[in-house]
Amino acid sequence: MITFDAVTKRYPDGTVAVDNLNLDVPQGTLTVFVGPSGCGKTTAMRMINRMIEPTSGTLTVDGRDVTKVDPVKLRLGIGYVIQSAGLMPHQRVIDNVACVPVLKGRSRRQARNDAYAVLDRVGLDRGLADRYPAQLSGGQQQRVGVARALAADPPILLMDEPFSAVDPVVRDELQAEILRLQDELHKTVVFVTHDIDEALKLGDRIAVFGRGGVLQQYDEPARVLSNPANDFVSSFVGADRGYRGLQFRHATGLPLQPLRQVGENGIDALDLADGEWLLVTKPDGSPYGWVDAAGVAAHRGGASLYDSTTAGGSLFPPDGSLRQALDAALSSPSGLGVAVDQEGHAAACFRAGDVLAALEKQRNGG
User: Fold this and answer.
1) In this predicted model, what pLDDT tens digit does every residue of 275-327 receive, in sequence order?
2) How crowded is the C-beta side of 278, counted as CA atoms within 13 Å?
3) By the 8 A CB rule, do 60 and 10 touch?
């Protein structure tokens, strides 16, 4: 457990970066420090490994005051991932990953051998091991940064805005990877971000910091959305928190209906009335898009079926949330959300009203 007991960081010019912070990070959980720029969240995290020294108060890791522990020994037991990976550019990927075990006394050969298994764990091809950081994409570099932090199997992992420099698609992939790794490894993770959506997605608990380094709320993500502690938290979370709160509600009980769908070879004999839509599937059975009466007419006039379709909305996966279900229905041109099975095949459909009915049933205890 990591415990902040009345911890304050005040700089010589009088600036207070963290003000009287009281907070417990339970063992084996992922806690997110979130807030606007300059609110003290990174300073609070960097006091855990003594990159920054507290001015007053007590910060303990597993009951030991960090200021009483040799900083080098302390840091060797704490993984650290920063923005843009922070890799050593003159070392190969395999040596970047192996560096901390080597510093802890493991032979270089054994550390390199073990590093391959860590590359596997974070989803990196072993063929990248002999490359240098500049030869990797931004997402690959961040995975190497995570691998390096995990290489010595530390119980604590600090992550300082690690995904803020990559594009949204890669960011989603890396977030999913962190959740997968945490489910597997159960590290004690402190993750810093300024992105409230990232915090809600990743955190077991969220600490919202405000100006002057004052902790505004420390709670489970669902409660931060549904019960913001004050106007600052409410404003920081955003006006659409009711919709975003649906991500914490399961979709059990959502009524699914049969779905009209057709492949490229089955549309010629169909007649659609105005306002009717038909799901067009790829040869492998996965959704491609929607076609209406005008699209059918265009296809019969010689246009490719796939050129005659309208792009579909998002898809509702197995075990998805009510937020994913509602988004699938709202983003679909037909007004029908598409549920897919484990193989990605279109399986059923539903309307936005069905999602709201399922929500009402849950609220009423159903």
Assistant:
1) 889 898 888 888 989 988 888 788 777 777 778 888 888 999 988 999 999 99
2) 24
3) no
